[in-house]
UniProtKB/TrEMBL annotation:
Transmembrane segments: none annotated. The keyword Coiled coil does not apply. It comes from Polyodon spathula. Keywords: Metal-binding, Zinc, Zinc-finger. Pfam families: FYVE, ZFYVE21_C. It comes from the Eukaryota. The gene is Zfyve21_0. This is ZFY21 protein.
């Protein structure tokens, strides 16, 4: 059994209902704090179109940035999973575009990672390997690996990430660092190459020593390749947050 708690609670904020972890220490690494709203007295005009507020033109706050807008400039209600809102919330035009792109990330990459995939896993420099299912935890903080044994890797403690790809030339294999793949199309849908494994170094909880973990997908395993491509995008996202 995992030592990572998944219990959540429903809370009401000025912006709406949110489903958040009972223990804030286990919130998603992608989560955002609710912004402080610009006080009404400090925004006599819409912060987008400069329309003056009056009895007919009312003020509305974007739930993502906290700025003050008229209804025309802040009329869209969009899901905002990074703030754990249960329902779509009012956002300005700029923020709603960002949130819509993030919804694609949650609907595609995160769902693929939480579903999991099968890999042959090798720890450190050991010559032994084990068949394990690797998946992202419900709170997005950990990689869970389950087979005859169980392993948890906290994403924030991963210091380096490499991905193994195939397909440049027949029979050739190559290893590319995570950073060199940030803008590549090699392992995305429709690319020229198939993701076949990953190699990462991390520090286990309570230790400062680097440990190595290698995952290899079985031959022609499309599910594992899709999982690796999704994990690549997750590390890209995490890097952009730092």
């Amino acid at each position: 059994m995992s030592s990572v708690p998944d219990s959540k609670k429903l809370v009401r904020s000025p912006s709406g209902l949110r489903m958040i972890p009972e223990n804030g220490a286990f919130s998603s690494p992608f989560s955002l704090d609710e912004p402080q709203w610009v006080p009404d007295k400090e925004c006599p005009r819409c912060m987008q179109c400069d329309t003056r507020f009056d009895f007919l033109t009312r003020k509305h706050h974007c739930r993502r940035c906290g700025k003050c807008f008229c209804d025309k400039c802040c009329s869209k209600k969009v899901l905002l999973p990074r703030m754990c809102f249960v329902d779509p919330v009012r956002q300005c035009a700029e923020c709603s575009l960002v949130s819509q792109k993030e919804m694609e990330f949650y609907d595609k990459q995160i769902k693929v990672l939480m579903k999991g995939a099968n890999f042959t896993v090798t720890l450190g420099t050991s010559e032994k390997s084990e068949s394990m299912v690797c998946r992202l935890s419900n709170n997005h903080r950990y990689l869970f690996l389950d087979g005859d044994s169980h392993l948890e890797v906290e994403l924030s403690r991963v210091s380096s990430f490499q991905i193994l790809t195939e397909g440049f030339t027949p029979g050739e294999k190559d290893i590319h660092t995570y950073t060199s793949l940030l803008e590549s199309q090699y392992i995305t849908e429709g690319g020229n190459s198939r993701a076949s494994g990953m190699l990462l170094q991390y520090k286990a909880v309570g230790s400062q020593d680097l440990q190595q973990l290698k995952l290899n997908a079985r031959e022609d395993n499309k599910t594992a390749s899709a999982w690796l491509a999704a994990m690549h995008k997750v590390f890209h996202f995490i890097k952009s947050l730092n």
